[in-house]
Amino acid sequence: MSREAVTQLTERWVSDPSFREAVRRDPEGAVRRTGIELDEDELTGLRNVDWSLSDEELTARASKAGAPITITLTGA
After folding, report:
1. What are the structural domain ranges in the chain?
2. Euclidean distance between CA atoms 39 and 60, whole angstroms
3. How much is the pTM?
4. Using CA atoms, how far apart are residues 5 and 11, in angstroms rounded to an integer?
């Protein structure tokens, strides 16, 4: 997945509460429905996220992991 694709997914996460909820319920399905394809390593990373964490905790973990975008999320 390209950096651009990560940016697109992140922007959607921030701006679309229904997408955030869909990712929390079914991360792989929600991402696949966007049309963005992930390789096996990326799918493994997606599966390993604890989606029960708050938005703030997810942001902090992404930042520590070197995610290309650091954001402040609201909700959930």
Report:
1. 3-64
2. 24
3. 0.69
4. 10
